Amino acid sequence: MLKFSRHNLFSSKNGSPFRFMLMLESVTLIQIPEQTPKNQDSQIKQTPNFQFSQTFISSLTHCKNIFQVHGQMIVNGLIQNLPIANKILNIYTLRGALQSASALFCEITEKNPVSWSVMIGGYAKAGDYMNCYSTFREYMRSGNGLDNYTLPIVIRVCRDTLDLQMGRLIHAVVFKYGFHSFVIVGSILVDMYAKCKVIEDARKVFDEMCKRDLVTWTVMIGACTECGNAHEALDLFDRMKVEGVVPDKIAMVNVVNSCAKLGVMQKATNVHDFIKRINFSLDVILGTALIDMYAKCGSVELAREIFDGMREKNVVSWSAMIAAYGYHGEGQKALDLFHVMLGRNIVPNKITFVSILYACSHSGLVEEGLHLFSSMENEYGVKPDVKHFTCVVDLFGRAGKLDKALKLIEDTNLKKDTGLWGALLGACRIHNRVELGEKVAESLLELESENAGHYVLLSNIYAKDGRWKEVAKVRELMTHRRLKKIPGYTWIEVDNKIHRFSVGDHSHYLSNEIYEELEILNEKLKVAGYVPDTNFVLHDIDEELKLELLNTHSEKLAITFGLIRTTKGTTIRITKNLRVCGDCHTFIKVVSLITDRMIVVRDANRFHHFREGACSCRDYW
DNA sequence: CTAGGGTTAG
């Protein structure tokens, strides 16, 4: 059971007096008649005792002039019939005529739960949340009791506005009157908590539901994925199937997203096989999700296969494919595809531009990127936002034009975020711009003083320049502020299982074997000309320890494990990694050469393909 | 006459 303390309910930071009143009333003042939820299915009492056919009432939907029909209904008295009045009310709300709707609503003296839910839903659809909540409050007061139709509407509003506070409040009401056991109310509650990032409460509601249907499972799967537990999401999917719930396309989209987040190819192909087996045709959304999944699992080729096989494609599908090329370092292909897209009269949106600019910046296509950036607003009517600026800062950064990047940032009135300053700080590290780096780090820490990553980056900039005193200062500051860098992990998938490594890790069950093999491998690499580059360990420590740290980097452990456990010819995929350090990059390159293996590595949001000595990555470590 | 879940960036 969830706890609703006074503090939770009333400590609103953004609460207007009205809001406060509403909250107070809903919890303490309103007398909701005690009634059992089974009421939901009871027959609605009609005002004049005349039953109109369903067809007649539903045919009203197609009336062109609803005002005229409404007038006619008043004249001939049919407006007295509640289902008819409700239907007209509904049509008004569907057509956005909120004023007419609310006028009619007031006219209905004997409102039934349908009238209330239509009106409340109307306000919700129109985005008039104040009236939505206040009408809901009136409804609770009216003595009609809550119903299974209205609750999902208001909970949905809480979800869409990320209003966790109101959501908890309504949940309390739901709980008090026993509606939490209803599938629809429960499902939207799960979704509400999940979208508000309170996965624990989402899970609690889910676990306590006595009945779950496909939608319930789907939102819970999506919730786990969104909150960073894609593994759990896939486990839930298996459980769902065991319990005999048959997935549909929407469920599969969520599962596909879990695989994309996980970045595990084996899981991805399993899920795709499943989709093929149950003969789901790929609609735009499912197809696009698959493109994204394959791309994020390290195969831009399979993503392209899906893309080419899709009958219907929209701007999202094209953007997904362009983004896929982008983080696989295939900037030119991304650009080509972008132009094909334009040729098909698909209008790019802001996300398309983020994807294509990102692709340009990560492939060093500076001129092309800048050109696109300058034309996006004039030619395509897409106003650049922070994300676009971040790509351009990155573009300038790559070209070494840091001052241009800085000027760009300073000249814009856009609200600067950490990503924007972070891109510039990253560029400062690459180009050894210590003074600028200090300045940028200051802005960055002003926005986000608790992110250890920023301190590390700054300290690395100092270290690269040999300014150990400053390095120590930054580290001192970190200690003082009790910040710790979260260790980087590398995940590798072998035989359908995921193995995780961190630097110096000995927790793996094959640890001994891995370290032995790594030693042998290092010997071979030495012969091949690989020399560990300790410059990438920017700690102020002695060389021997640096080497030790370097040789036990998580990527190296993962790759070695991959070599042990896979046969020759198998692609080694590392699709989840925080950052591949420069030396590991070289290491992997040489490993791929001497072992004749294809190795795909994901570093942050970028993939590197190492194959037969050819490396698609044009990076400058 | 009314109610819940889906795609691209970050």
From TrEMBL:
UniProt-listed Pfam families: DYW_deaminase (PF14432), E_motif (PF20431), PPR (PF01535), PPR_2 (PF13041)
Gene Ontology terms: biological process: chloroplast RNA processing
Gene3D superfamilies named among the record's database cross-references: Tetratricopeptide repeat domain
Ligase among keywords: no
PPR repeat feature ranges: 112-146, 213-247, 283-313, 314-348, 349-384
Keywords, alphabetical: Repeat
Domain DYW: from-to ranges: 529-621
Protein family per UniProt: Belongs to the PPR family. PCMP-H subfamily.
Protein name: DYW domain-containing protein
Lineage: Eukaryota, Viridiplantae, Streptophyta, Embryophyta, Tracheophyta
